[in-house]
Amino acid sequence: IFKFLGAISVDLGQDRIKPYLPTILTPLYRELNSNYAEQDPTLKNLSQEIIELLKKLVGLEVFSLAFSSVQKQANQKRAMRKKQRALQTVANPDIAARRKLKRHKNKAETRKRKIESLRPMYKAKRHRSHALKDLAMVE
């Protein structure tokens, strides 16, 4: 998709690309600022190349305005999600408690996995999943 965005921007040219610049920059910005563990470095390099291409194509001033608007919009969305999560904690404490328990459980499992990788002889006790048992109608 990034290659497609680059090709379309080159094909449209300097004047016709300007209205679509924020739309094109949004996924590129998201890829550049993502901090996932399984991030593909080729995607990051490709998005950087396309950003450089767009910068040369439309000029630094127009690009900077569009990029800052995309950046501002992303920050606003992030802040809004954080605010909604905080409000949900107050409005629905049971859902928040479940989320917190799940997060703590995942943290404990991660810690056990890390210990096992560092010391292969050590086997941490794992919590048995009763998922199938809970689904059964016989109980």
Automatic annotation (TrEMBL):
<dbReference type="InterPro" id="IPR052575">
    <property type="entry name" value="SSU_processome_comp_20"/>
</dbReference>
<dbReference type="GO" id="GO:0032040">
    <property type="term" value="C:small-subunit processome"/>
</dbReference>
<dbReference type="GO" id="GO:0030686">
    <property type="term" value="C:90S preribosome"/>
</dbReference>
<dbReference type="Pfam" id="PF23099">
    <property type="entry name" value="UTP20_C"/>
</dbReference>
<feature type="domain" description="U3 small nucleolar RNA-associated protein 20 C-terminal">
    <location>
        <begin position="1"/>
        <end position="116"/>
    </location>
</feature>
<protein>
    <submittedName>
        <fullName>UTP20 protein</fullName>
    </submittedName>
</protein>
<dbReference type="InterPro" id="IPR057525">
    <property type="entry name" value="UTP20_C"/>
</dbReference>
